[in-house]
Amino acid sequence: MNFEQLEYIVYVASEKSISKAAEKLFISTSAISQSISQLEKELNITIFNRSRSGTTPTLEGNIVITKAIKILANIKHLNDELNSLKIQKESHLRIVAAPAFFDIFQEAVTNFNIENEQISIDVEELFPDQLLKNFNPDHYDVGFLPAEKDELDKLPKLGKKLIHKARIGIVVGKNSKLYNYDYVTPADLNNEKIVLLKNTRNSIVKKFAKNINNHVILTTNNPRLLLNIVKESTAFSFIHEFTLKNYPTFDNNRLKVIPISYSDEVEYIYQDIWAIYSHEKGLSSTSNEIIKHVSFQLDK
Asked: Which CATH class is domain 3-89?
């Protein structure tokens, strides 16, 4: 027994004719007849009496047809609910991003909303370690973070899409002796004071400074406090080049972002920026759309 057979017997009962049911269903009369015969054989009953005056249900046929109508109605109701849920999901986008993005979403979300007024967006901020640990497709549609590929490869349930390669640098204030540098090397940072965001990626920190803990004067989870300390002191902080792009309190005259190079040969250091999502569920059209807008802002 299958849904197609149930649909056929309901149509035949309604039209009281196999040929008229075939016309309504845009299939051949023989196809319906064969399908009904197979169902009758499977159930070991006769569903319809066939005569010159028409096709009418038998007693057993009426029971089967009544049940078939209910089953088909329940299937339609199920499909309607699932479609409604799909529309609802696609009208609300849940994003989680690392603090490195700060206000990078300002223009991305604004432009996205201009093109998709019917879609609401919820943006949550989590440090990369927390983001990877807590990423749940029931809570988020897509996440944005800087990360190493081999780190993400250890999480097979996560889908990943490389959207940008960002230069890593430092941010300094005018009081820092590094302020006038066009670039800095790890050696330039060895004896400088540092302020750090809590949960800053250890891989980045270890890559650029020896004995870094000896020079940390402040750790905070407040980016604005961090920038104010940098602005007024001689300390620096690690940063991705794009982080302050749309930052509302960024002062070009008091703060400066300087790229880091491996050496004086000016080999800039980059880190991959990823969009992550549920590998099982994949990316919805709205998730792909916001990724496109975020990528555009990063590339600018």
From this structure: mainly alpha
